[in-house]
Amino acid sequence: MNYNWDWGTLLREPYLGWLWSGLGWTVLVSLGSWAIALAVGITAGVARSMPSRFIPQVAGVYIQVFRNIPPLVQLFLWYFVFPEVAPESVGLWIKRDLPNPEYITANVGIGLFSGARVAEQVRAGVAAVGIHLMPAALATGLRPLQAFRLILLPLGLRAIFGPLTSEFLITVKLSSISLTIGMLELTAQSRHIENYTFHGLEAFAVATAVYLLIGLAVTALMRAIDRHFGAARFKRAQP
Amino acid sequence: MKRHVIRLLGAACAVAAVSTAAAQEIDGVIKKLQATNTITVGYRETLLPTSYLDDDKKPTGYAIEMCLRILDEVKAELKLPQIQVNYVPVNIQNRQALVANGTVNLECGGTVITFARNKQVDFSPVSYVAASQLLVLKASRISKLEDLNGKIVAVATGGSSEPELKHIIETYKLKVRVLNVDDHAAGLIAVESRRADAYFNDNAAFFSLIKQSKNSSNLAVVGPEFGYSPQGFMVPKNNPTFLWLVNHAMGKMIKSGEAEKIFDKWFGPFGVKVSPKLRAAWETFSYPE
Description:
The complex is a heterodimer. Chain A is an all-alpha fold. Chain A has one domain (7-237): MetI-like fold. Chain A is built from 10 helices and no strands. Chain A has helices spanning 15-49, 54-68, 71-85, 88-97, 101-139, 144-159, 161-174, 186-197, 200-229, 231-237. Chain A is flat, with a radius of gyration of 22 Å. The N and C termini of chain A lie far apart (61 Å). In chain B, strands 1, 5, 6, 7, 8, 9, 10, 11 and 12 form a 9-stranded mixed sheet that branches. In chain B, β9 (152-156), α6 and β10 (177-181) form a beta-alpha-beta unit. Chain B has helices at 2-24, 28-36, 62-78, 95-100, 115-118, 161-171, 184-192, 206-212, 240-256, 258-267, 276-284, and strands spanning 38-43, 46-47, 51-53, 59-60, 84-89, 106-112, 121-123, 128-137, 152-156, 177-181, 198-202, 219-236. The termini of chain B are far apart. Chain B is an alpha/beta fold. Chain B folds into 2 domains: 2-129 and 229-284, D-Maltodextrin-Binding Protein, domain 2, CATH 3.40.190.10; 131-228, Periplasmic binding protein-like II (D-Maltodextrin-Binding Protein, domain 2, 3-Layer(aba) Sandwich), CATH 3.40.190.10. At the A-B interface, α3, α4 and α8 of A face β10 of B.
């Protein structure tokens, strides 16, 4: 292959600046959508495991809908379709007056998709500890909601730290689909550099390495949290 | 599409091998015209309204009409009984090669005249000047660059219009939110859904976009023409007489106002008039007889 490698391109301005700002947006989109995913996912996961008939069904509908539609389609629906079917004034507000509509749409779109996946993990965690602990908690005189809040949820969440790490990593990688709605994150900036310099391979190689580093950092972070609060510590405390 | 291109390129190479001599020969086009009364004209298939296939799949458009008028002059000047025009479709990738090797005698499309291209082919006088402009909804009442202050402007990531927009924002000290879009279609959607107030791009791309739009009457192309990309018709090198005939015919059309009439006929429906830059180029070329 006749490819003229020139890694120096990436160190020149404005390309270095583009990569930096791309990295910044990737981190911001990842954190923003992960915050939404955790908040929505834990809420839906808890609702799904509630000792009630109606609430778990509502949560189930959310999980099935959002888990089964491809995230890219969801993003397009939120970005292109939702503002058009909303009342005109609301739609225009979303499209124009919302501060940074692309960023917020990306967070909502990716966050709600990941949220449905997190919800299933939460449900699995609660179910795993609940099968034995729920009768025990009820036997101590706690009401179902109290048992849920005080026993099942804290232990269930600790039990799912491993799978949650994977969900976090998936969310980081999903942040790249936000380029389709105009977010200039890491992948978009790599393409951007390719357009101007025809040195796309270098840009994408760096982007790949950066994604890997972000992934390793996320894994290390989740491990650290797990050591201090999670099941790992819980296990160590056992005799 | 890709196979089509490869086939064409292959054909081009084969023809190149045979006709290099013809292309090198001085005034090959004129000799061919006198011997066979035929000429090969290159056209673009989808470049609205400059050069495209009409509903009957016949090449038509502004550039085609200009070229046919030029050929009328050629016919009169060479005292030929008739000229048979053979149309060959060309695209952005192969157009220059096909003219350079003599397969196409006159390329009637919208090729930007650059010194790099001029090294391999000759150009007719300027037929059209492309420049960056704004595609807006008529209701937005944006008519000049200053009106963009406080507005949202869509721009295609990676094109030449992106640095231009940045330059405009800095020069006019505008407060503009830039919306990055991937392609022309996304730019059109952004403007039509009012996500952006304007789409800043090469105005040559706007005409087919407006044609695509369901509510084309709501759209307008406004703003001063930013940048200068003069387009012309390509002629093979080493054809001084033919080039002179083309130049002379176009010069006459420009001076008589016929060129502007043809321009208005094709660009008028899109609300485009002869721009100051095109007029300047035409006036520069209005040599006395």
